[in-house]
Write a structure and sequence with these properties.
RutC-like_sf, alpha+beta, 8 strands, Reactive intermediate/imine deaminase, 32% strand, six-stranded mixed β-sheet
Length: 128
């Protein structure tokens, strides 16, 4: 099956050697998003909830560019520099996702690009 590269200006431009997303058939692999504001490429201002919301807005923009939505996410990976923020992830996720929720992993990491406190990547299945 051919790969389709997904790119949108509604999400931060790739800051390395990767694509925002790759679609193969009805499956879309969304690259990790940190809380960059697409227009400025700077970290969003505000607290941890603001960072989580920006990450999810970025993922939603890439999912939309692929013809999908966060409602079609089947797997979400969350990377946090401080796992005490995990309850905030659950709280903010409830604003963006409804049941049935995607499968998910949360991983504590030492650092993330640009000093971000959170990063998420996802897999979605279109029409799923």
């Amino acid at each position: 099956m051919p790969r389709q590269i997904i790119n949108t200006e509604a999400a931060p431009a790739a800051i390395g050697t990767y694509s925002q997303a790759v679609r193969v058939g009805d499956t879309v692999y969304l690259s990790g998003q940190i809380p960059l504001v697409p227009q400025t490429m700077a970290l969003v201002e505000g607290d941890m909830q603001a960072q989580i919301r920006q990450v999810l807005r970025n993922l939603a923009a890439v999912a939309g560019a692929a013809g999908g939505s966060l409602g079609e996410v089947v797997k979400l990976n969350v990377f946090l520099t401080d796992l005490t923020h995990f309850p905030l992830v659950n709280q903010v996720m409830a604003e963006f996702f409804s049941e049935p929720y995607p499968a998910r992993a949360a991983v504590g990491v030492a650092a993330l690009p640009r000093g971000a406190a959170v990063e998420m990547d996802a897999i979605l299945v279109l029409g799923g």
